[in-house]
Structure formats: structure tokens, C-alpha cells
């Protein structure tokens, strides 16, 4: 269909009734969607909607008799003023007068605006005189920007011309003041997004590197140079032809994203939320299996906003010089190749990078070597971008570059600003091919908050911070370890490669280990160091998995882990890499509970390595030592010694092995003071221990006690992270739970007493509370996780079966699992609860009704019942 056939200008204004206007808009929307799906030029579609809206508004303006007032003008502002309208973008209008409209005219204006609302158009409007516009615009940069890019749709040209004349730079927001205000506005907007676009749910328009950053360039150019389009900036010498094409390409892709998003959700919203990404990726033609279309689209988005941010930074620097005259800064020589302009590094010879690619690495070495440097000078950045694109091979193929790269990796400030700028400006991608493949590589899940390259960058920054004094408080063990590492560059290299093989298929740890080994040997590291880096990459998840999913108080687990680590040097490297990795995965993953687990695993392994793996611990000695220390604590609290011995005689040896002396003393003191045997004893630590709130329950054992507690905690919106389920010799439950609030913090305040009371009431009755059936969150609805139940070999010392559960994270999951164990007559001894985004990966230590490991038939039955329970998603 020809777009002209949709034009309301072909109709008499009197025919523009509400139904007719709705029909016109519906036909236009259908036509735009068809042409978009057919691959028409996005700029033409955006302009076409704006032009058709002009015609419709002109007709309605005439229909309401507003054209008869010789002083009134209808003006487009905002994106509409630029002639850009996406399918559901706001129609920003200024109804401009030379004075105060008469009441009758105000009524007609009101009817005009009401009709636009009745048409379900997203209209933003104001009715102002020229004087009011100028007065408001001088106080607000956003209003001023709208006025500067205002466009007459219909009405009195003289009134509009008066506005145009009043907003000239010599009278209204001179270009210097305008530039400074827009730069400050951009910096403030970037801070709202934590100065990054690398979010799971970015804002296409307002995130750093988004459409608003392109508009900021255009606004400044328009104000200072009178450039109405990006292409005019080429003639002013502020954009090269190649940079203009690049900026236009970026804008077109972001426009396509925004256009497709508006079509998918049928409203004006620029947030690329999880539940919208699949529809948008499909509309843009990205294809593949599973989540591949989304991941391809997001990779293109992240790469695009990085290019926009780079151009925006360079151009704003150039504008700073041209508009504010800041070119005559303090200039100091650094080397024969580089100088400082203020706090920005500048290359002296403009052909240096093209003539000698190794100079690129020397630039970043100088940034590491001089802490006063805060960035790269605009012309140098342009030369760097140009040289990067002209490289015939990756820089790592050159021996001189390899030598410089290792010099940089060994510099104590390498992972500070130098690495950040290498990442930001694409130098890491130009240095070695593996990095170029992960730029913008995202994973469509709720666990990884950043693309692979940004996550790795943040990990390296964490390692850099571990060496700073502030880390002594936040990560004391990392501070101590990193301060004594003899070759910290090996940790940097392991961090650089730990996720380098993601997105290729296969085990990324194994593939990355091979890449790391080849890279290290290529860079002349000795074989021992190269193998250490490769080992760290291969096992970078080992410590996290062991701490969070295995029983680290089981000597077998510690012995197995220590056997894989083999020496304390590897343990030091692995611990630091693990903490940095967890902290860099997303902003909410790290908490004191994880920190406690990792520290306890570290020290237990260190002790095992120092003792020698051929000398396993004497468990009887450990039990006696735990009892001795617990007795000392109790004596200090004036607990009668004669009461301790009979109490402890009721406890199994396993109890004393798996609890610390502090826990044993805490439990014993409250059990001895508990007088009412008819009520359960429920205690929660006032001072959070081990990184979480420790909940202790002492009660005659009963069926499905774990499931009932889990259901009660779910009702309180608390998460279980660890559980030790024990029974005394005379049939009393001695159960310990580590619980945290949803934000990873321990329970505090009034919640402590309320929780103890509520659990006490739950335990008095056999029927568990109903599991809350809540709809899945907006994000969770986008995922399907196949329920998997796997069994590990029984543990040698404890003779228990380990069950691994992988499933979608749903409310009440632990309560339902507990009910399955109870129905099958199984004994639960311990649980490790790990939530990874939308997925749970939980471990349960089990025995059958005869307190033996589960046989094959029992495992098969348990797997069937668990999958059946979770897949039906019903109540207990």
C-alpha cells in the first residue's frame, strides 16, 4: 500500500470524526508494521509517521476552527519536533500564542486536546505565550532544548517566528552555557544507570550509549554550529565521513530496536525488559535455537552502545575545545611519544599508531605508570580508533606487542584505569581474537547481570581493588593474599581467560584452559606458570561449587578438594579468583554467608595441606577438642558442669563433629534452660554468625519437620541457605538452619522474636502451613528449567546418599521437597540450597528408613516423585 493513500490531508477536515480518525491511525499503524517487517528503511518509517501525524493534526486544528485565530500556532517539540515518531512515541505539542487566549478560544483548544486523548495518542502538550516559553526555558534546560528544536506544524507563522527569534543564542542559552548544561545533564543521567549500559534490562533511549547520547551530540551541534543534521557536522570538521556513517548505523539499529519494542508492547516504553526481548528479537529477524535470538540481539545492542559512547565522549571533548576554548591546557611531556594535556594523555605524532602498532600498548602502559592521567585526549582517541580498525592482524601476533602486554600485566596499576580504557575502546578485542568473540556476549538468565566481557572487566577490577587498603575491611583475606602474591600477573591472566570460551559450545572452563595455556606459552611464560594459569581457568568454579553445594564440615569433602588443589599457592590464587568472580557476576550475589563459607573452606583446606593429605584427621580427637572448648564456654557462663555430661550423652558423635564449640555451647545452654517440654525450643542468633541468621530447633522428632519449617519460613519470605538435620539418641530433633532475608542480609529487629514465636506455633501442630501459591515474577515467566534429579556416590564416612536437584525457582519448593522425603520415609541429614538466577541447584544428604544409603530402586522412585511433585506445581 502506498503511504500517501493513508494521508488524512486527502480528506475534508469536517470528515475527521472520531471513528474516521481512529480508522486512519489504525491503517497507518498496520502499514508501518507491514513495512517494518518487510525491511523498509527505518528512517523513512519514523519520518512517515511524523508527516502523517502533521497532516492529521493540521486537519483537526482546522476542524476545531483554530486556524481562524491569526495569532495561534501549533508547534511540534521533542522527538516530534525533529520529525521522528516511533509507533507509540509521545506526541509533544506546544500550542503557542502571542498573549493570553480568550475563554472561547481556550474551549476550542480544550476540545482539540481532548479529541487527541480520545484517539489514545500519547500527547504531551502545553499552552504558552512566547514570553512564557522564554521565561520557562531560561530556568529549565529540558524546556530550552524543546524550544530550540521546535517545528511549526500549522497556524500563525509570525507567532512561531517570534519564538524562533527569541531563542537565538545571543538572547537565550548561549552555546557555552547550553553545552555545559547538556553535558551535566548527560552525566547525571548516566549516574542513574550506574554509568553502564551493560544491564540485563537496558533502556534503549536513556542508558549510556543510547539514543539520548546521540541526541546530545545533535543538540550541541545544532546550538553552536546551526547543524540541523548529523551529516552537517562533517562539513564543520567535527565528524569524519566514516564516523558519520558509524553514528548513523548505530542510530538506525537503536531505532529498529525501539520501533520493534513499541510494536511488541503497544505503548511508549524504552526499557528492553526480559519478557519483551524474545518478541523484539523475533521482530528484528534474529534466529536460532532456544535463547540464541535474544543473545544475538543483545550482543549487537551492547556493541552498538559501546560505539556510541566512544563517539559521544570524543565529540564532547572536541566541542569542549571549540565551544569553551579549553584547548590551551597545561601541556607536559611524558615521553618523546606522549604528553599530558591537563590530565588527558595525548600522542605527539598523529601517525604514530598507524606506523607502529606497538605504540598502542605503550600508550596504555603510560596510563598505568602515571596515576594523574584520567583519560585519553580526543584527537588521540580518534587516531586510536582509526589505527584499531586498520590493524592487519591481532596485536598479540607481534613479538614487540606481546612483550609490552606482559609488562603491562605485571604493573601494579595495570587493572586500574589502563585496563578499563583498553576494554572501553576495543583494544583488548584488537589484542587477541578470543576477547573479540565475547564482546557483548550475554547469557539470557537472571544470574549473570553483565555480558561476558563486562563481567570479566569487573572481575579484574575487583582483583585490583583487593590490593587497596579499603579491601582490608571489605575482603580482609583477599587483601592479605593479594599482598603476598609473588606473581600477581598470573591471577590477572587467569581472570582474563576464566570465561573466554563462553558462547562457543562445550565446557567453557576446559576450552578456556586450553586457550590460556597457549596464550601464556606464546607470551614466554615458563611452563610451570602457564600450567598454573591454565589450572585456575579450568577449575575457577571449583571452590564456589564446593563451598555452596557440598558439606564442607565433612572430612571427605575437604580431603577431596585439597587433593585437587594440591598446594597452598593454588589455594591462594583460587580463593582470590573465586571471590572476585562472585562479586563481579551481579550486584546482589555476594553476601556474608558466601564469604563465611569460602573462608571456612579456605582455612580447612590450608590445614589439610599443611598436615599432609596422607595424614587424615583423627575424628575422635576433633570431637574431644570441640567438647573441651564448648565446656569452657559453658563454664564461663556459669552453667553447672554436672548438667552438661548427661545432656551430651544423648547426642551422637556426628553432632559434635559437625558443629563448632560455640554452636554446641549455645545449643546446650538453651536446652538446659528450656523448662516447658510441651513446647518446642526455637532460638535464632541475635548476633548473625557465619554470615547469616542461625535458627536452632529442639523438639521431639516428627514426620516432615523439615518441610513444615520450610513452609513456615516461606510464609515469612525468608530463604534457607543451609540446614543440618540431626536427631539425638532419644529421638529429639537438633536442627540448624541458616536463613537470610531476600536481599541476602541476616534477620534483625522485631523479625527475630516474631520468627521464633511463629515457628513455635507451627511445630505444635502436625499439619504444615499451606505453601503460598504466588504467580511467577515477570522475569521467571520467561524461563523453563527442566527438573533434574541426580545422585552422587554415598559419602565414605557418613554412608549417606547425596541428591542433586536442578529446578525452576518457585515459591514453596523446599516445603514440597520435604513432603516427598516424608512420604517415602527418607531421613534428611543436611541440605545445601543454592539459587542461581531463575534456577535452583540444591543438594540433600539422605538415608532410607533403615538409615542406609538409598539403593537403585529407591533412587528411581525418589526421582519420579520429586519430578512429579515439582512439575504439577500444586500445594502440599
CATH topology of the domain at 680-772 and 781-873, what is it called? Alpha-Beta Plaits
Strand content: 5-15%
| Number of H/I helices | 38
Count of extended strands = 17
The assigned structural class equals: alpha+beta
Radius of gyration: 33 Å
Low-confidence stretches: none
Q: Kindly report the name of the CATH homologous superfamily of the domain at 680-772 and 781-873.
A: ACT domain
Shape: globular
CATH arch. level architecture of the domain at 680-772 and 781-873:
2-Layer Sandwich
Helical amount: 40-55%
Major β-sheet profile: 9 strands, antiparallel
Average of pLDDT: 90
Structure description:
There is one protein chain. The chain is globular. 55% of the residues lie in helices and 11% in strands. The strands form three sheets. Strands 9, 10, 11, 12, 13, 14, 15, 16 and 17 form a nine-stranded antiparallel sheet that branches. By secondary structure, the chain is an alpha+beta fold. Among the domains are: 3-173, Beta Polymerase, domain 2 (2-Layer Sandwich); 176-324, Four Helix Bundle (Hemerythrin (Met), subunit A); 680-772 and 781-873, Alpha-Beta Plaits, CATH 3.30.70. The protein has 38 helices and 17 strands.
Amino acid at each position: 500500500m502506498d503511504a500517501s493513500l493513508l494521508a488524512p490531508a486527502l480528506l475534508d477536515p469536517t470528515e475527521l470524526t472520531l471513528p474516521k480518525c481512529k480508522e486512519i491511525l489504525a491503517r497507518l499503524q498496520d502499514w508501518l508494521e507491514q513495512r517494518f517487517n518487510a525491511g523498509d528503511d527505518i528512517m523513512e518509517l519514523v519520518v512517515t509517521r511524523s508527516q502523517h501525524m502533521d497532516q492529521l493534526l493540521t486537519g483537526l486544528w482546522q476542524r476545531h476552527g483554530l486556524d481562524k485565530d491569526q495569532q495561534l500556532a501549533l508547534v511540534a517539540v521533542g522527538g516530534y519536533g525533529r520529525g521522528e515518531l516511533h509507533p507509540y512515541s509521545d506526541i509533544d505539542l506546544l500550542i503557542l500564542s502571542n498573549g493570553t487566549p480568550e475563554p472561547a478560544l481556550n474551549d476550542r483548544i480544550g476540545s482539540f486536546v481532548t479529541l487527541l486523548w480520545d484517539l489514545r495518542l500519547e500527547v504531551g502538550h502545553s499552552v504558552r505565550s512566547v514570553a512564557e516559553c522564554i521565561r520557562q526555558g531560561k530556568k529549565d534546560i529540558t524546556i530550552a532544548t524543546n524550544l530550540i528544536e521546535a517545528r511549526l506544524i500549522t497556524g500563525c507563522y509570525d507567532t512561531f517566528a517570534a519564538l524562533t527569534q527569541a531563542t537565538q543564542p545571543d538572547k537565550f542559552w548561549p552555546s557555552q552555557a547550553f553545552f555545559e548544561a547538556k553535558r551535566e545533564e548527560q552525566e547525571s543521567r548516566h549516574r542513574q544507570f550506574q554509568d553502564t549500559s551493560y544491564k540485563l534490562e537496558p533502556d534503549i533511549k536513556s542508558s549510556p550509549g543510547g539514543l539520548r547520547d546521540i541526541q546530545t551530540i545533535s543538540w550541541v551541534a545544532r546550538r553552536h554550529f546551526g547543524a540541523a543534521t548529523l551529516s552537517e557536522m562533517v562539513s564543520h570538521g567535527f565528524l569524519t565521513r566514516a564516523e558519520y556513517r558509524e553514528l548513523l548505523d548505530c542510530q538506525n539499529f537503536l531505532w529498529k530496536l525501539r520501533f520493534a519494542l513499541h510494536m511488541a508492547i503497544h505503548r511508549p516504553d524504552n526499557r528492553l525488559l526480559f519478557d519483551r526481548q524474545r518478541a523484539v528479537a523475533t521482530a528484528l529477524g534474529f534466529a536460532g535455537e532456544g535463547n540464541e535470538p535474544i543473545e544475538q540481539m543483545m550482543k549487537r545492542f551492547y556493541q552498538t552502545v559501546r560505539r556510541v559512547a566512544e563517539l559521544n565522549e570524543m565529540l564532547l571533548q572536541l566541542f569542549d575545545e571549540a565551544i569553551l576554548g579549553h584547548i590551551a591546557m597545561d601541556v607536559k611531556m611524558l615521553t618523546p611519544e606522549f604528553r599530558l594535556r591537563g590530565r588527558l594523555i595525548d600522542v605527539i605524532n598523529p601517525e604514530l599508531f598507524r606506523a607502529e602498532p606497538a605504540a598502542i600498548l605503550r600508550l596504555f602502559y603510560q596510563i598505568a605508570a602515571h596515576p594523574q592521567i584520567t583519560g585519553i585526549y580526543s584527537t588521540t582517541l580518534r587516531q586510536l580508533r582509526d589505527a584499531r580498525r586498520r590493524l592487519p592482524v591481532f596485536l598479540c601476533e607481534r613479538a614487540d606487542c606481546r612483550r609490552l602486554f606482559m609488562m603491562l600485566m605485571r604493573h601494579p596499576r595495570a587493572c586500574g584505569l589502563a585496563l578499563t580504557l583498553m576494554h572501553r575502546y576495543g583494544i583488548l578485542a584488537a589484542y587477541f581474537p578470543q576477547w573479540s568473540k565475547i564482546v557483548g556476549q550475554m547469557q539470557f538468565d537472571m544470574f549473570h547481570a553483565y555480558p561476558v566481557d563486562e563481567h570479566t572487566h569487573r572481575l579484574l577490577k575487583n582483583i585490583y581493588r583487593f590490593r587497596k587498603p579499603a579491601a582490608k575491611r571489605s575482603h580482609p583475606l583477599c587483601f592479605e593474599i593479594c599482598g603476598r602474591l609473588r606473581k600477581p600477573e598470573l591471577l590477572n591472566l587467569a581472570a582474563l581467560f576464566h570465561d573466554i570460551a563462553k558462547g562457543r559450545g562445550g565446557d567453557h572452563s576446559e576450552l578456556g584452559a586450553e586457550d590460556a595455556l597457549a596464550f601464556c606459552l606464546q607470551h614466554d611464560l615458563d611452563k610451570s606458570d602457564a600450567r598454573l594459569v591454565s589450572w585456575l581457568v579450568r577449575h575457577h568454579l571449583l571452590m564456589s561449587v564446593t563451598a555452596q553445594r557440598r558439606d564442607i564440615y565433612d572430612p571427605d569433602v575437604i580431603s577431596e578438594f585439597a587433593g585437587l588443589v594440591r598446594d597452598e599457592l593454588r589455594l591462594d590464587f583460587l580463593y582470590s579468583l573465586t571471590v572476585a568472580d562472585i562479586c563481579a557476576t551481579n550486584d546482589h550475589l555476594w553476601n556474608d554467608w558466601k564469604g563465611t563459607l569460602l573462608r571456612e573452606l579456605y582455612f580447612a583446606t590450608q590445614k589439610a595441606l599443611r598436615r599432609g593429605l596422607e595424614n587424615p584427621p583423627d575424628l575422635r580427637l576433633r570431637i574431644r577438642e570441640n567438647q573441651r572448648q564448648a565446656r569452657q564456654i559453658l563454664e564461663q557462663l556459669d552453667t553447672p558442669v554436672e548438667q552438661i555430661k548427661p545432656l551430651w550423652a544423648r547426642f551422637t558423635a556426628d553432632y559434635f563433629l559437625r558443629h563448632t564449640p560455640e554452636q554446641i555451647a549455645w545449643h546446650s545452654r538453651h536446652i538446659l534452660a528450656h523448662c516447658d517440654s510441651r513446647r518446642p525450643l526455637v532460638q535464632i542468633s541475635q548476633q548473625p554468625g557465619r554470615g547469616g541468621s542461625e535458627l536452632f530447633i529442639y523438639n521431639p522428632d516428627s514426620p516432615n519437620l523439615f518441610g513444615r519449617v520450610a513452609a513456615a519460613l516461606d510464609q515469612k519470605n525468608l530463604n534457607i541457605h543451609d540446614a543440618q538435620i540431626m536427631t539425638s539418641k532419644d529421638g529429639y530433633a537438633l536442627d540448624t538452619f541458616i536463613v537470610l532475608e531476600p536481599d541476602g542480609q541476616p534477620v534483625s529487629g522485631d523479625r527475630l522474636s516474631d520468627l521464633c514465636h511463629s515457628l513455635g506455633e507451627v511445630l505444635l501442630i502436625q499439619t504444615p502451613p499451606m505453601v503460598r501459591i504466588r504467580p511467577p515474577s515477570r522475569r521467571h515467566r520467561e524461563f523453563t528449567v527442566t527438573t533434574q534429579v541426580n545422585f552422587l556416590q554415598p559419602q565414605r564416612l557418613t554412608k549417606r546418599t547425596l541428591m542433586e536437584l536442578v529446578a525452576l525457582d518457585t515459591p514453596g519448593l523446599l516445603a514440597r521437597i520435604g513432603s516427598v522425603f516424608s512420604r517415602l520415609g527418607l531421613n534428611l541429614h543436611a541440605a545445601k540450597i543454592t539459587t542461581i538466577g531463575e534456577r535452583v541447584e540444591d543438594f540433600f544428604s539422605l538415608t532410607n528408613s533403615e538409615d542406609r544409603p538409598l539403593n537403585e530402586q529407591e533412587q528411581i522412585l525418589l526421582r519420579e516423585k520429586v519430578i512429579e511433585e515439582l512439575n504439577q506445581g500444586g500445594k502440599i
